[in-house]
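Hi U.,

Before I forget, here's the chain from the pilot set. I'm dumping it here mostly so it's searchable later in email.
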Amino acid sequence: MSKGMIGTLVALVFLFIPFSACAEGEIYKVVDKDGNVTFTDQRPSADAQPMDLPPLSVISTDTPDSPTPAPSEGALEDEQPAAPTLSDLRKMYRDFRITRPMPEETFWGTGNTVVITWQSSQPISPQLRVMVMVDGAAQQATGSGSLSLTLDRGEHQVSAELRDERNRRIASTDTVTFYVQQHSVGRNRRGG
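Structure:
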């Protein structure tokens, strides 16, 4: 028998050994007088010692019932933080408000120019936008926190809304009523 055939026979023996014998029983290596090697689960002699086999490699797969392992600390550092939810944004910007004009404020001699300002305790994220409503007309504002307008004399109302990139309302301010007035000759006269 050639060495190639012996190797082939050894491999075939391993294929024919029942898996239950590997899992539950012991495996013995037997070498006959001609050097032929056989493997068996039957003890060949009283003094025979079982082989020390390496542990089986077991690869588990994710199944719907198996829990997802928690990421390691190093993996958390590489991940981007999750974007805040709509509820989170509403909590963050619940104090969004108009800071100027003040309620019932009157602007005199400004050339009809009024600066509207707003703020929140949280810096307004660049992903959010501010819509300013002046006398019912919407005007999109930049993230600078102010908007300069030229208005006619009289009573005006302003409010603002903070909106996300999907145009969902995050926060809105109370409506502020204010007045724009100009000095006139008739108003400055006394007694007349």
